[in-house]
Amino acid sequence: MKKITCVLGSACLEVVSTATGQYTNNRFTGFTNVSFGGEGYYVSTLLNALDTSACLLSAINHNPVSQLMADDLARNKVRSHFLIDDGLPDSVANYHYTDGQLSSVVLTNPNTMAVFSEDFVLRTLKKSFSFFLDLNPSIMSFENIVSAIDKKPDLKLFISACDAVDVDKLNMIIDRANLIFLSEDTLKASKTHYDCESLRELTNQVKTDLIVILDDGNILISDYAEQQITNLKESLDLGFRHKVLRDKNFFKACVIDSLNNNADLNILQAAELVLFNYDELSWRIDVQIEKQNPLESSMRTVIRKAHRDNLTGVLNRHGLDQFLTTPGIDLSTYTMLMIDIDKFKNVNDTYGHQVGDEVLAAIASILSDHMRQGDIAARLGGEEFVCLIKNLTPELTETVANRIRSEIEKTPLSTEHLNITVSIGCTSWQKNEMFIDVMERADQQLYKAKHSGRNRVIVG
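^ that's the sequence the OP posted. Answer follows.
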């Protein structure tokens, strides 16, 4: 029989409306994207496709959106324990931001305004082997959650503090935690709160195992019992863009599943097991989701294809627009690289379009290999690509762009082993700047690179 993991985390319908142009003085044109999301939704759905049975603890009202969420969880065969409260608003987040595009975001069904009683939580935990808990519930709910956990002494407790660290809540439950997930930001916040200078010092302070998922996709494992910190990318000699490290919720779900079903594993062994078995785990999840909800599987495939360039596999313009409207994204941290293949028309004219396509695909692959988590590469059309890379100074921008340019230059491309060069124009995103303005400035730098001899980088 599958072990049960209770999951208390965000599960919401995310509605993002983005204005891409102005129709009249007070009317805008644009598009709206709707998707299910939230850490609780993803982790419970993924766990349920593995060797663990997930039960999502959440709060809803009787609005149609809540019913959509309940129906979707049922299709994925995720058990749900809903607190139904018609006093809850239909949405608790409706805000605008103007980094790149004007957008309105509505998040429905979060748990932050609900009050879960101790008895309600205990009923959910009655048959649970483990509990995956974030720190977002209200303080009143959290006190009841802690009381319920105290009455389940054998319950394994996994805490997610990747979005924010509420030290008061964490201190209420830290003695029961078997594992805490942190992000790079919450690691820094935790070290400040607990007056620690290092990850090891923090681990000894909280006296439990820590997994830190860094912004660049790397993962640090801090084992309290062994007093050992492991950098997974270095210890396993992983490539910079290893697939597992680019999907945080997948990694969390697989680690929890491993610990649920292998009592002898320590935290490092569980994490390594996920990386070694990534392809099998991914295949199993895809098969289970397709069996349980073939329509959703087909829709996900269609959406994925709609956002990707068929020839090169990088994002297309629609996928780029989707990225630019990611809720909460701070585009002012990005630098744009506009990349154009030098004399590409000669390649098509001399060798034919098949060889030209091979060149495009090979260059896209090189660009992708230089992207970290949070960076993207996209094809704008023809022989023109764009990369958005986070946290680069002007000096680093020139270094990274020249590294890309140099690798393309020295790599024989296509079946004809052609020596191809590119010109690159670079510019940094300014606060509240529209995408079209940044692209125009990057295009100006690209023009300078083209007209000063090609095969060079211009930053401006």
